[in-house]
Amino acid sequence: MKAFSQMIFIVCFINGVILFAQNNYPQNYFRNPLHIPIQLAANFGTVRTNHFHMGLDIRTNSQENLSVVAAADGYVSRIKIERYGFGNAIYITHPNGYTTVYAHLNSFFDGLDQYVKERQYKDEKWEQDIVLLPKQFPVSKGQLIALSGNTGGSAGPHLHFEIRDTKTEECINPLLFGFDVPDRISPIISGMYWYDRRFSTYEPGANGIAVKKVGNMYMTNLIQINSPAISFGIKAIDKANQGFNLGIYEAKLFMDGQLKYSFKIDKVSYEDTRYLNGCIDYTKFVQDKMSIQHLSTLPGMKLEHYSTGLDGIINFQDNEIHNVEIVVKDINGNTSRLVTKVQFTKASEKISSYGTTINANEGKTVKTENAEISFSKKSFYDSIHFNMSEKPDAEAASNTVILHTINIPVHDSYSLKIKPNKKLRDEEKDKVVMELNYGNDKNVIKGKWNNGWVEGQFNRLGIVKLIIDNSLPSVSPNWKDGSLVNASSLRLKGETAVGDIVSFRAELDGKWLRFTRVKNDFIYVFDEKCPKGSGLQTLKIVITNTAGNTNTQTFTFQR
């Protein structure tokens, strides 16, 4: 099929102003990658932890192994296999300048699956990132390329589908390409918030405003403000016709008929997707799992293509009552409006805060007696009063270092140095890891020794300490040692007291065996390397954890 472009012009009226929108992406060039109608579990731009959702999550009716087909003619240009993230993924490059991505797959079509398997055995490595040439695996529109699944960082069976600009690798909202996804439901607005911008959106944080729906309009009572400089945020979702909470596509903020801020989520690159944390109230997201999107630009938020350049900060010059309107749209043009009135009354005193002031776009180093943290100019989206302290920890190899709070985001990695609280022998030093606790999860890294300090990098705040880890990682089989295995696979459950299993190697009769990894489970699906009737087999497993501790285990089974 030849590429063609269809220019769509949409004319809408807001406050008497005529606005033109255009879409110059090819319409109906790409087909539905499944044989069932598209129903969305998530759309492009949905708020996720530390990133925008970068494609469409297409429902597979809670089933796996549905046929996945090429959305258009092209060739398989890349295969990626990983424990988390996309799991098993196919990239198809098309002649019209776009690349489609299909993720969380169970398996690839036969020829490609065999190619990948041979590559894995050759490299003796399950995780792969393979770049392919145009003539190796050409595909035609509608051709079977894979079976859907639930691999990688997937919480349930579905197909993750993306469209990227091949040259820039920016992800583009797939719904701009004319897919048939019926939607007659306007976005739902459930909350409005204002922020005192005399210092930062983080201090003192969100002020909630009750929202009510009257007819087809959302409204609030008169909002009385005690700061001369504020910005707004909104809590809204797009329900579409399918019941899932989808992300909103576009929002505009007007005051007295004048546009103060707007955003639209058309395209984002993976390099920039972490800027999401500067587009939302991150504190509310972490504390309350609530998605509030700012209707203003934080000073350290540098995401391209997202907002118009207006900063959204409202500076009051009087005590008059002003009209505020917020317009929220989905990609099909379904629109919701919130109208309210706002009045500046009298400025309150600023809240006193303690700590080292770090502004957006400012690098800084903060020290305590036994710790030092260094931030780059990209670290923070808004100003903070950074607090860092220590407390004794008799069970650890260092004091516990408290890095402000988990409720403030960091855009890039910072460097942290910690001094041990005791003299360590060389063998103990070799087993030291840095453990960052950030709420319900932990990140454990090896770190490097530098003049008696351990140095590492993290990209979240929390509580950090040094731990001496002498524990051995292990795996436990789902079969009794020496027994006959009638199942189609072997499964080993991995366990480690601290950190993660960073290396896993399985050998059968001294030769590498392909185990896939699902979270902390290691799975081998029987193939020609271990045929039926091969008698008693000895499986050797060598695993290493974050601290570098290695354990060798052997198991036997009959096949």
From TrEMBL:
PANTHER family, alphabetized: MUREIN HYDROLASE ACTIVATOR ENVC, PEPTIDASE-RELATED
M23ase beta-sheet core domain residues: 52-119, 138-167
EC number: 3.4.24.-
Pfam families tied to this protein: Peptidase_M23
Top-level enzyme category: hydrolase
Protein name: Murein DD-endopeptidase MepM
Ranges annotated as spanning the membrane: none
Keyword terms of this UniProt record: Hydrolase
Keyword Hydrolase attached: yes
Organism for this UniProt entry: Chryseobacterium potabilaquae
Molecular functions (GO terms): metalloendopeptidase activity
Gene3D superfamilies xref list: Glucose Permease (Domain IIA) (2.70.70.10)
Keyword Hydrolase: yes
Record InterPro entries: Cell_wall_metabolism_enzyme, Dup_hybrid_motif, M23ase_b-sheet_dom
